[in-house]
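>> Question from a student workshop board

For tomorrow's exercise we were told to take the sequence and the ligand below, predict the bound structure, and bring the output to class. My setup keeps failing. Could a helper post the expected result so I can at least see what it should look like? The ligand is flavin mononucleotide.
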Amino acid sequence: MGGEKREKDLREEARELFKTFFEKSKDVQKATVQTIREITERTLKEVQPSKEKVKEITEGIVEGIQDTRRHMGERLENVVKKLQDLTSKATSGLAEIVGGVIEGIEEASEKERREECLRYIKERRSVTYFDPDREVPDEVIKEILNIAALAPSGYNLQPWEVIVVKSREKKRKLKEICYGQQKVEDASANIVIVANLKAAEEHVDRVLDSWVELGYIKKEEREPLRERILSGWKSPEKRKRKAIRDSALFAMCVMIVARYFGLETHPMEGFDEAKLKRFLGIGRDRVVPLIIAVGYKHPEKELLPRAYRFTFDEFGKIV
Ligand SMILES: Cc1cc2nc3c(=O)[nH]c(=O)nc-3n(C[C@H](O)[C@H](O)[C@H](O)COP(=O)(O)O)c2cc1C
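>> Workshop helper replied:
Here is what the output should look like for this input. Compare the format with yours to find the bug.
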């Protein structure tokens, strides 16, 4: 076999090996990729690496991968062994191997990144049975809400507000308002999503200031735009529609981000809104589109399979 062909095979072999491994692994270590990348750069700089250099580099790769053992479990040992076999076969082909390793890891990382995103959407279910003994720390709830607040909104007015109902006694009362839904009491917290019908008036100046500052609009465009935004919110029906629409987008983000943190959620519209507003002191200029229960699933309860979903052919068309 000619040198070129052999190197190509080695690269392919390393690439496939790592691709398979990282596809199976749930935790792709960016640090490892970075380390291997650095090692490769060093390797490629050497026109003809000495045997000692090759050994040093090989050991570096193996060490870097071994560092990730605790994240990746026992399968790693096989990978390291195979990598050692591969590198011992090759001196001149070392750079090819390392290149293959990186390509394999990067391809798998990209695939995993995509799958990670979809996973949070696919995994989300309306969980009915929460573990009443597991609490979600306030800091985690705040982090979820801060990330969810990256949701889009018309003119970036962000008309959502939340009240997190977490104390035992308040959850018990909220359960009554939610027509006795037990999950309200069992969940660690209930995020009451509030749509602010006065968001345009209350938020427009801060939004426009930031737009001027960041160069989205010129200073002289600020006033006419402000008028346009406020006029869009004039009719009660329009302001309600806008506030609820944006708050619903925010709410969906809350549920997806909660999954990222390993939590379960349950959106609820089953509550007496008038009673709820009295209970939480929510004014007439606000409405409550939904409440989201958040917590951990009860370890002994199983969900039924996901119910029927309409597919694009039923709910959509491309024109
Ligand atoms: C806005 C909204 C309100 C809901 N209200 C309730 C509710 O009050 N009680 C309840 O048990 N489920 C409620 N659900 C949950 C739905 O029944 C559930 O999302 C649907 O059956 C699909 O199940 P899945 O979320 O597990 O895929 C609500 C869902 C949404 C989006």
